[in-house]
Amino acid sequence: MLKGSILYQLREQLGADPPSFGVYYKNTLVALCHALEDHILSCGSPPLVLTAFQRGKWYAQEAKRYRQIAQHSREILIMAVPDAGFLQPDNPANLLQLSLDEADPVAAEWHLLILAPNYAAMVMCQELSDRDYGEGNLPQQDLERKFYGFWTFEEPLVLQAVRIVLEHVRSYDPDLSERLKAQAEAIVREPAATRTDLSGVVARVVTYLQTSQQQLINLSKPAAPVWEAGSDRLGGNLTANRLQAFLRMAQRIDAGDPSNPDASLQVSNLVETLGQLMHLPFGRLRRLRLAALLHRIGLSEIPATLIDPDSPATYQAFAQAAQFGCELLRSMNELRTVARIVEHQCEWWDGSGAPEHLAGEEIPLESRILGLVSYFQEWLVPRGERPACTPAEALALCEAGAGSRWDPQLLEHLANLVRLMQAGILIEPGRPQVSTSQWLLLATDAPSTSAS
């Protein structure tokens, strides 16, 4: 990592790697940036945009696109080493360019920082050095170039990076730095009527990533298929990035629920514990836990009727969300089993549920567990005038649906879990770590694996 670079300074300030930090192929970064740029064109909330393209020739390929983006932005700053095609004579007044010195560490970086009143997003990466690649491993194709870095929708992290970038700009042009700083401060002060629903941009990210994966596979032919041994470096990297897109979407949905902001995390802990008590195989536990983290991904908003988890309106809202979430997750072949778990979480034991009116053992076991545990967990938190239930009280509410909504045998396992909690033998699990990609890859299915 180059000392003095924006990424280096941000990591130093954080004291740790940011969430989703890893190694990305260039085609992955192109996909991420195009998805975020498309959102600028469609969201109706003009942002401040700060970018670094390494060299002017890379920006020249995107110059026309950025003139269009400028029409939907407050200010755009483009940074690059000024080789052929960088300085454009017909730029609009709000599209600004800064020529970087060849020796500037930022010249090795690729950034896209977007700050708007109602959302923030960032891609921040730095290309691997020849030493990082290792002897004989230098990329043979442009799209195979690799970068350290991360991407995020977390506004505090984006603001921190914006401040570092503007301080770097000050060393070149103090007046420009002040101009952009004023824009950033005005955006922070401006009240946002509503936070932007980023489900659309996440869906774009997934679509672009799927396309970019195929481009990279095509470039590397006649190599082995992505999921065969020895070529997992391509599929694994891109699969992890797409999973991060879904997880960030799920995290934003939970963040919009102040009464239950850790819903998915708590449900994932509880389903894993219950699954362990039931002696589920390790692979099924991994998929169940991932399904729990993503089980609310289809919600566009938290239904106001959730104050009563038993109301028909609440059930209808979650049943519809389960179907939308399932369709979204099915866009990834690797998540088809997880999608099936999410799809059937609202089935009822007596066959009166949705979407397929499955009954009894026809309902996938993982879906039965997820539906029961998410219902149980909701009763554990206060919402509006409804107080939080104790685990025993929440269990009693679940048992009222035995044989109709819930699998009676599952309720026995849940009762065992509650008894262990009451005895102090089992402590409620803490928040799981979802920022790393390693365990997420283990939770997915390779395309050759049949859904179970």
TrEMBL record:
Family matches, as Pfam families = CHASE6_C, DICT, HD_5
The UniProt record lists the HD-GYP domain at 238-430
The record ties this protein, via InterPro entries, to: CHASE6_C, Cyclic_di-GMP/3'3'-cGAMP_PDE, DICT_dom, HD_GYP_dom
**Keywords on this record?**
Hydrolase
Tell me where on the tree of life, at the top rank, the source sits: Bacteria
Q: Where is the signal peptide?
A: none
Give the Gene Ontology MF terms in alphabetical order: hydrolase activity
PANTHER family reported for this sequence? CYCLIC DI-GMP PHOSPHODIESTERASE TM_0186, CYCLIC DI-GMP PHOSPHODIESTERASE TM_0186-RELATED
Q: What is this protein called?
A: Metal dependent phosphohydrolase
Tell me what organism the protein belongs to.
Gloeobacter kilaueensis (strain ATCC BAA-2537 / CCAP 1431/1 / ULC 316 / JS1)
